[in-house]
Structure formats: structure tokens, C-alpha cells
Amino acid sequence: MRPFTRRMAQLYIGLVLFGISTALMLRSRLGLAGWDVLHQGLAARTGLSIGTVVIAVGALVLLAWIPLRQRPGLGTVSNVVVVGLAADAALDLLPSPSAVAPRVALLAAGILLNGIATGLYVGAGLGPGPRDGLMTGFAVRTGRSLRRVRIMIEVAVLAAGWLLGGSVGVGTVAYAVAIGPLAQAFITRFAVPERPARSRSKAPTATTENSERTNPCPAF
Questions:
Q1: Helix 130-142 vs helix 74-93: crossing angle, to nearest 10
Q2: Which of 45, 73, 127, 193 is deepest in the core (most CB within 10 A)?
Q3: How do residues 5-39 score in pLDDT, each as one tens digit?
Q4: Would 60 be classed as within a structural domain?
């Protein structure tokens, strides 16, 4: 498979799986990731589907990139739309069990699938998600460490979501603990290698130079 074809496949498979992982955690009713607590709280207050809220929040966050001078890629824009659509579609199909054991299974599957999905779409190298770009943009503009900015934003959205009625629970803690190691492992596993550099002994042709200027890959 050609590198760009693989990148595109990974990107969209990863984004769809990310939406499904969100739906799995929602159906577990044991707590959500920070941003999804906010999404759920807003959905409860507005009457919109959670997928619609995911899309709307992603679009607003992407607008916040403008003053931060962040550059979105294809993966960034696709993230805004695909994750929300996939989450709503999965929620229409998934059961909502009442027993604890299947709910725990849904939570565990959701967290694991979220790690795999993150590895796939980040490893594709076609642009960060809108929320990740917000964090890196603030870190650059404020001069603070990325870890500190990430914690501040995550705590803020988690608190806002909880106040709006979003679900905070054991799943929130489990996700916070597990997602870092999982994402790192799967990003390493699915990272698409860069094309090898050309030999210095062979000068590039004008056609090749024009092609690279008009079709940069990846686009960040």
C-alpha cells in the first residue's frame, strides 16, 4: 500500500473507531473522558445528540486556532465531522445494559478502542485533532509546558461538563490513567514512516519540484 493511501485509510478508520469508542463509554454509564463529559453535559442542556455537540464544539475549538496561528490539516477538519457522526451511529446500534458486568466490559472496550483509534489517526500524520491543537497552541503562546496547559484545559472542561450534568465516575479516572500508555503504544505501532530522502547525487527535476509544491504531504 502506498504511504499516502495508508495515511488516508488510517485517518478515517481511526476517526470512526474514536467515535465508536466514545459511544461504548457512554453506554457503560460509568464515567467519560474530560471532553466527553462536557459534550454530554451540553447535549443534556440543549437536547441535541451528543454527536452533533461533538461536531459543534470541535468547530468552535477550531475557530480558536485562528488567534493561536495554528495550521489545521486534513485530519483536523475530518476529526471535527467524522467522530461525531460515528458516535451517533454507534449509539443507535449499541445496547444500554443495566447489569454491572457488561457495563464494565463496555468501558474497558471503549478505553482500549480509544487508544487504538488515537494511534491510527495520529500515526497517519495528517494533522492533529482540534482539541490537541488548542493545547499546543496555548502552550506556544503562553510559554507554559504542554503538560501544564493540557491539565488546565482538561480540568476546566471536566468541571464545566460536570456542572452541566455530564457523567464523571470511575470511567473518567480509568481513562485518565490508561489513555496515555495506550496512545503512546499504538501511535508507535501505527506511525506511517516518512518517505526516504532522495540521494544527494541526483538533482530533482522541475516536474518533481512543482509536484511537491502543489501537493504537500502531510499537511499540518
A1: 140
A2: 127
A3: 899 999 999 999 999 999 999 999 999 999 999 99
A4: yes
Q: For 141, how many CA atoms within 13 A lie in the half-sphere containing its CB?
A: 14
At residue 153 the predicted structure's pLDDT band, cuts being 50, 70 and 90, is: very high
Structural contact between residues 165 and 38, judged by C-beta atoms closer than 8 angstroms:
no
In a domain, residue 220? The reply is: no
Nearest to 39 by CA among 31, 30, 49, 29: 49
Which of 162, 135, 161, 130 has its CA nearest to residue 150? Answer: 135
Total structural domains within the chain? 1
Contact 20, 102 (CB under 8 A): no
103-145 confidence digits (pLDDT tens): 999 999 999 999 999 999 999 999 888 998 898 888 888 888 8
Helices 50-63 + 3-28 axis angle, to 10: 130
Whether 68 is covered by a domain: the verdict is: yes
Confirm whether 219 is domain-assigned: no
Handedness of CA 113, 155, 29, 59 (dihedral sign): negative
Q: Residue 181 contacts by C-beta under 8 Å, 6 or more apart in sequence?
A: none
Per-residue cell: 20: 465508536
DSSP string, 113-157: HHHHHHHHHHHTTS---HHHHHHHHHHHHH---HHHHHHHHHHHH
Residue 218: cis peptide before it, omega within 30 degrees of 0: yes
Please report which helix (H) or strand (E) contains residue 6, including its range. Answer: helix 3-28
Cell of 34: 474530560
Measured between alpha carbons, how far is 77 from 11 in angstroms, rounded to an integer? 11
